[in-house]
Amino acid sequence: MHIIQNNYYQVYFDPEIRRFGVISADDNLPLLRNAWIAVHYRDEFGHKCEFVGEWSGHEIQVFNKVVPNHGKGKQAKIIISSKGSKLDCQLIFFLPENYPFVLWKVVIHNNNHDPLWIRRIDLLRSDLSNEKSIVFKGNSLSTELTFFSHGWQSWSYTAAYCSSQRQRRSHLGFLQNPMVVNPGTPLTKQRGHFSSDFFGVVGDQQSRTALLVGFLSQKQHFGSVEAWLRDPPFLYLWANGDDTRLNPDKSIETDWAVVYAFHAEDSESLAPYLEAVAREHHIEEVKDPLQGWCSWYYYYQNINKQVITENLEAASLISAELPLKLIQIDDGFQEQVGDWFEFRAGFPKGVVSLAEKIKAAGFTPGLWLAPFIINRRSRLYHEHPDWVLRNRHGKPVNAGFVWNSFGAALDLTNQDALGYASRVVSTAVHEWGFPYLKLDFLYAGALKGRYQDDTRTRAQVLYSGVQALRRAVGNETTLVGCGAPLGSVLGLVDAMRIGADVSGAWRPKYFGISFPFNSEPSIPSACNSIQNILTRAPLHRRWWINDPDCLLIRSSTELTISEVQSLATAIALTGGSLLLSDDLKELTKERLRLAAALIPLIGKRARVLDWISAGTPQRLRLDIENAVGHWHLLACFNWENQPITFSISPEEFNIKADDYWVSDFWNKTAYIVNAHRPFFHGEVPSHGVKLLAVRRVHENQPQYIGGDLHISQGLEICDWIVGKKEIQATIDTERNTKGLIFIAHPQSISQISLDGNSLLWQRYGHDIYEIPVVIHKKSYMQIRLK
């Protein structure tokens, strides 16, 4: 038995039985034991082989090491081989000195005289026996366990499940799965049997502890996780080899695998892992999120120069009330997807003049492109058949049912094909004048197929493909990834779509038809969009700026006002970008004001308190502090199909019991609650939300309570100076608006003025003053006391 350890973990290796385990220094955290590795490959005769090998005890080396991005630590290297084997392995463990996780990887060398084809590399295997490989404190039953499943790409469903559930999956098979399912990750069907991509988490609801396994990157392989929440539970973790060719005397290595045991208080508990991923990709700072407009969800492909121009003019006219920064031309300007240098009749001279107009009007020009996918009706598809990715039968691979036909994909190992994709994005930036590009359908660069260079995995192909796009446009260009496997674009995109497309319907429909599409987890709909907005909230500002997709505010959709408010709340509190996608000319003042209340963007991510509980998260908490003090912004959602009576207590939001001022944003009310009483008790509409700002009561002190000027209910106040006889406040909304603010004051008020003009007010309840205001971007308020 060999052991290495630090202040966080002990890792043991037993050469005799070829097993390893990970034990936390915190006795309350779960442990991993009796695990092993294996390599699955095909030899030159096509035989499927499994290599486990012998662990040579005398060839276990332990030494101090500095690993790039993760600092000093202890490393153990284990040589695994066997007589006459066609390959050998190195199993390398690393315990960072300053971080609470364990890393390991496998290096494979081909000793054979002929090539080998690597199918998969198991980095964590365990027995399907009564011997527990995952042990939680108190020996939790499987009924108390949940599994957080992370989807492969932007649109792939991400959620936690309990042991009695089945994993949600598409029933559309070859129409949908090529887009959203990693070919190397199993589609599970049984209750309690789940799979995940990149990383997965097993959580214990009783002890509120969890165990994460996964990878720090997907530069080398797409990583998969499989979990059975039975008694005992067990996990598999592997790197997909994709049947790539490993030539004689050549080696490959996996990305770093990771295990992290932790107390699962809320989504911020994932921080050590998420930040390690960021360090692995040299992500130090991210750009600020933008607010803007895109053409897709109102016009779809029915756009032309006039449509864009009219909405640009409308955006300019309403800019004082709704200050947008981006105007993005979406799908529909090009002749066909793939024929990017040919334009439809609605854009007779291309898009250069539009970019110039957008820039001249003071906005950032944005353009949608899908550089890796091809419409089979395109000229590119017919003129360059050698650029098309094909299967083992020589047929074009199926890229999914898109644009009412089956898409095809570029083979990015063909240098001419990759060069074309790079030329497209370079031209859009450097010749057409678009410094902001949304790159869609990027999964097409990683489909299962017979690549012209069969020594490279799908993950390597996609990562190098997106690297080429980034080099072509330069670091100053803003790139937004979409439809992309998350792990293979890290460090290469500035923002990332993290969920399914939104739509004007709550449940999925296809051409207006609900059945059988309404239970599809990745088809466009408001509920599917919100799902990943919440479950992937902790990625924001760690890996990139989260792109939650568009907020649809027009009244002509099927969405109820409660559903629009829920979508707006989820977008605002998770901190990502804000894009509208309506006909700006037709929006009512009421709907414009709804969107404007999200500007300026909060930019910070909320804590998702129930992220490890099964289903769609219901509870968000965002802690904010500025000139008016510290407060909690709480969101509690009702995802049921009927109104539900909720009681929102301090305890369920991990807030200390005390007296609190409460401001209800969507209902425009304010009140006080006493210690040990709920912040709210009442009915919440179907698919609706209760959004509250809660502030601890400071006796005999004036306090800002909230209002409806900004969804944060406080960030609009940049100065708050309290004197003996007056309060001076600066209200900075960065836009013209009107609404209510609430303040609490134990003394009587004699006068309130705004920019020198007297205001009316109403006093009610417990020393609460309701003050209607009209703000011209930045206003100065003076409150005089009796």
Task: Outline the structure in words.
- The protein is mostly beta strands.
- Among the domains are: 1-127, no CATH class; 618-785, Sandwich (Immunoglobulin-like).
- It is built from 11 helices and 49 strands.
- The strands form 9 sheets. Strands 1, 2, 3, 4, 5, 10, 11, 14, 17 and 18 form a 10-stranded antiparallel β-sheet that branches.
- A hairpin with a 5-residue loop joins strand 7 (71-81) and strand 8.
Q: What class do helices, strands and sheet pairing give?
A: mainly beta
The tally of strands reads 49
Q: Classify the beta-strand content into a percent band.
A: 35-45%
Distance between the termini: 79 Å
Number of helices: 11
Based on the coordinates given, report the CATH architecture of the domain at 618-785.
Sandwich
pLDDT averaged over residues: 96
**Rg result:** 28 Å
**Helical amount among residues, as a percent range?**
10-25%
| CATH topology (level 3) name of the domain at 618-785 | Immunoglobulin-like
Shape: globular
CATH class of the domain at 618-785 reads Mainly Beta
